[in-house]
Specification:
Length: 376
């Protein structure tokens, strides 16, 4: 260990007050603590120097001896300086300073009584149709929960008795444990952080102050919600123990697969089968939407795969007034189970179509052009 000046180690002047020294130490200890610098030997050594400097300067007698004799005041065998021979004995706790203060800032330590005993968050699933997702709907969901014990009325103690102050933590809800070079604060294992000890628990709730039950919650599912999204209901989760706040309820929404439509963001897509005659000559057809049927004009000479847009017949946005569109993907259907007359007419059509100008069959022309290129 180096004999660097302790005031210089902490970055304070020789006449610094106790609060200034403590503040400087706290800042440096948080920076160089081994838990923040795993595997960093240099940071570990620096932390030990800082600890040694603070252990001396935070104690009035040690500081007076150090100011008078310097590091020699703590060397083995020196009888002066108030009998500090052997001095530090490694890393004894810094006088008047609790490492729990540092860990509370660094890692959210401390008792955490309310955090530890706030009710757990719950998750439930709800299945809705695409129509319900588009319009929004209210659903009633049954969820498991707890209620105040009707025997002990939430105290957890047998009627006629009451909880007493915890004998381990004396009501603080936390205990301090020392590990290696530092002291840590953790939840009391006896009372689990409540500060109270129930020696004669209620026979119904076994000291919890609550019993299992179920409740029905109404969930407002907004218009535009999509599959996989979830809704948070604050305070509708599992109740906390001994009066602590309840957790939250998360409702995971699943939208059933639709027989006709597929959703993509705010837009809907569907197949639209049309006859050969309508595809060739054009015409008006009915198409379905989530709100009913609408008319759609099919241009003449429409080919399979053409996408027809029906504006404003998609899904309303969850967060704005925007509305998606419906896209109908045309499928020219080949008829089946033909009558004799239909066969006769199609055969006649095929005969008169032989030798058609290739401009009348653009896809066929393109295909054979590519075939020609392949064999050249």
């Amino acid at each position: 260990m180096s004999n660097k000046d302790f005031y210089e180690t902490l970055g304070v002047a020789k006449g610094a007050g106790d609060e200034e020294i403590k503040k400087a130490y706290r800042k440096l200890a948080m920076k160089y603590h081994p838990d923040r610098n795993p595997g960093n030997k240099e940071a570990e050594d620096k932390f030990k120097e800082i600890q040694k400097a603070y252990d001396t300067l935070s104690d009035k007698e040690k500081r007076a001896a150090y100011d008078q004799f310097g590091h020699a005041a703590f060397e083995q065998g020196m009888g002066g300086a108030g009998g500090f021979g052997g001095g530090f004995g490694g890393f004894g706790g810094a006088q008047g300073f609790d490492f729990g203060d540092i860990f509370s800032q660094m890692f959210g330590g401390g008792g955490g009584r309310q955090r530890d005993y706030t009710g757990a968050d719950l998750q439930v699933g709800v299945e809705i149709t695409l129509e319900e997702a588009a319009k929004g709907i209210k659903k009633r969901i049954n969820i498991p929960t707890y209620e105040e014990c009707d025997v002990c009325h939430g105290s957890g103690a047998k009627p006629g008795t009451s909880a007493s102050t915890c004998s381990t933590c004396h009501g603080s809800g936390t205990v301090h444990i020392r590990q290696a070079i530092f002291q840590m604060q953790q939840t009391c294992p006896t009372c689990q952080g409540t500060g109270k000890e129930i020696k004669d628990p209620c026979v119904k709730c076994r000291g919890e102050g609550r019993t299992k039950t179920s409740k029905t919650v109404e969930v407002n599912i907004p218009a535009g919600i999509d599959d996989g999204q979830r809704i948070r209901l604050s305070g509708e989760g599992e109740p906390g123990t001994h009066g602590a706040p309840a957790g939250d309820l998360y409702v995971n929404v699943r939208v059933k697969e639709h027989k006709i439509f597929e959703r993509n963001g705010l837009d809907l897509h569907c197949e639209l089968p049309i006859s050969f005659a309508v595809a060739a000559l054009g015409g008006e057809v009915e198409v379905p939407t989530l709100e009913g049927k609408v008319k759609l004009n099919i241009p003449k000479e429409t080919q399979t795969g053409r996408r027809m847009r029906v504006k404003g017949k998609g899904i309303k946005s969850l967060r704005s007034n925007a509305v998606g569109d419906l896209y109908c993907h045309v499928l020219v259907e080949t008829p089946v189970n033909l009558t004799d007359r239909q066969k006769e007419l199609l055969e006649e059509f095929e005969k008169i179509s032989t030798g058609l100008d290739r401009s009348q069959t653009p896809r066929k022309k393109s295909f054979w052009d590519k075939v020609g290129d392949l064999f050249e």
